[in-house]
Design brief:
The chain has about 190 residues and is α+β, with helices and mostly antiparallel strands. It is about 35% helix and about 15% strand. It has 7 helices and 5 strands; from the N terminus they run E-E-H-E-H-H-H-H-E-E-H-H. The protein has helices spanning about 40-50, 65-75, 100-110, 135-145, 150-160, 175-180, 185-190; strands spanning about 5-10, 15-20, 55-60, 165, 170-175. Strands 2-1-3 form a 3-stranded antiparallel sheet, covered by helices on one side. Strand 1 (about 5-10) and strand 2 (about 15-20) form a beta hairpin. The chain is extended and about 70 Å long.
């Protein structure tokens, strides 16, 4: 049965909000056989002992509802910007402005380097352009200054790739999709 939970060290003013949705999981497992999957909580426990606050906050019928609820709570609590929270990510996603250790960055880049994940990281003969050269005409086009219209198109494409947060429903997504279905539309829908 999926559930969300809160653990905390009240004397230290440190807390962690999480969710569990593993197959055959039960809220009764919390802090008996399940101690979160967070390595940050594990490290904090080693240094500071066991938490004095252990609470199951909400129980769900399915894992999807549990995940959505956890994400909403983490965003509302602003866990990535407040020191009292041990949480380092929201739903497994690091935010672009969040701090990442050098070790984490090196691990992440090592995983993607040379991968066949789109064009990113393709090196040597994995790159479809490997061993080829641009024609003289193409090189001249690339060196020409860009027109204002072209610059606007490039700027618009960059804007559409931005991740934004709807202030009315707290959903996160790309600007191009969010502007169609959220913002003023969400404002007019009663909660």
């Amino acid at each position: 049965m999926p559930y969300t939970y809160l653990i905390g060290w009240s004397k230290l003013n440190k807390y962690y909000y999480g969710a569990r949705w593993a197959k055959n999981c039960s809220p009764n497992d919390l802090w008996k056989t399940y101690f979160t999957s967070s390595k940050h909580v594990k490290q904090f426990r080693k240094l500071n002992g066991e938490p004095d606050i252990i609470q199951v906050r909400k129980i769900f019928e399915n894992e999807n509802d549990c995940k959505i609820y956890e994400k909403k709570v983490l965003i509302k609590l602003n866990v990535l910007k407040k020191d009292k929270w041990i949480n380092k990510n929201i739903s497994g996603m690091y935010l672009p402005h969040g701090k990442q250790s050098k070790e984490h960055i090196l691990k992440r880049t090592a995983k993607t380097k040379g991968s066949n994940n789109g064009m990113y990281g393709k090196t040597g003969n994995l790159n479809p352009f490997f061993g080829k050269k641009h024609s003289i005409e193409t090189l001249q086009k690339l060196s020409n200054p860009k027109s204002e219209e072209h610059k606007k198109k490039m700027s618009y494409q960059k804007l559409n790739k931005l991740s934004v947060n709807c202030p009315h429903c707290n959903k996160i997504g790309q600007y191009v999709n969010m502007k169609r279905w959220h913002f003023d539309n969400c404002k007019s829908i009663p909660k």
